[in-house]
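hey so i finally got around to running the thing on that chain from the lab meeting. sorry it took forever, my laptop kept dying and i had to restart like 3 times. anyway pasting the input first so we r on the same page abt which one it is
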Amino acid sequence: MKKVIILGGNGFIGKRLASYLLKQDVSVYSFDLTIPSDKENGINYIEGNFFDDDTLMNAVEDKDIVFHCVCTINPGNSWEKYMQAYNLDFIQTVKLCKIVSETNKKMVFLSSGGTVYGKKDIQPIEENSTTYPINHYGALKICIENVIHSFNERINDKIIIARISNPYGPGQDYTKGVGFIDAAIKNAISGKDIVVFGDGSVIRDYIYIDDVVKLLYFLSSYNGEYDTFNVSTGIGTSQIEILQMLQTHFPDMKIKYEKERDVDLKKTILSNKRLMDCYDYKMIDIKDGIFKYVEYLKEKKDEYAT
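ok and heres what got predicted. didnt touch it at all, straight out
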């Protein structure tokens, strides 16, 4: 049985990925700074610091597949913390790539979607489109991607880059910097204002978290010609459209419009043709995904409502 480790296993994607992997024929290891209080039976938890060389080596040395989900910054705080990201995240990921390449492991690196591509006139955006990061979060991801491309020139089993669009669903926490759908639903349930920056015309490619983790697991076994994949639906939805969908669930919800932010791209839709050509998979429709997430959060209201 293969051993799979998720670096950053306590995060939104990492935690959901670990739960999904439990249903596969693999041994699951979740690595993070702390052991979560809500441990899930069947998952092997490892407490440690990703940025300690010996700890990292010990954590991954006997594993077959590595999912790299660690990142100390997000798009919202990257202008304040970019030196931390380059000094820590970038350097340590280079070291991890070296370990993976020398020990013949498979690794999937979680990159970013819109922040690496920047402003694009032609959409949906394909993987071979030029990258022009709009902030240091995207720049960090591209720096790491370029290192991965270099390592992939010398190894047979490529390190895979997953450029994930805008995931949403159980386990997300918008207070950490991202997640419009998460914020909108939680605030609607709690009777708080749903804050919209601008006029609500911002378009994103929203993908349900359960689709994300299934596609990531598929990529961990991929060994074809490509090393970079958009993990997306290929369909754009505006914030106004999201709010219209939510009004069927919350007719009295309150919306507050504020000044638009210069950090927000107007439109980002990622093409998923390359991935779908490799893996015939039906995505969860945005309306169905929102319905599922609304029902889930209504049951969990006491855990986040204040």
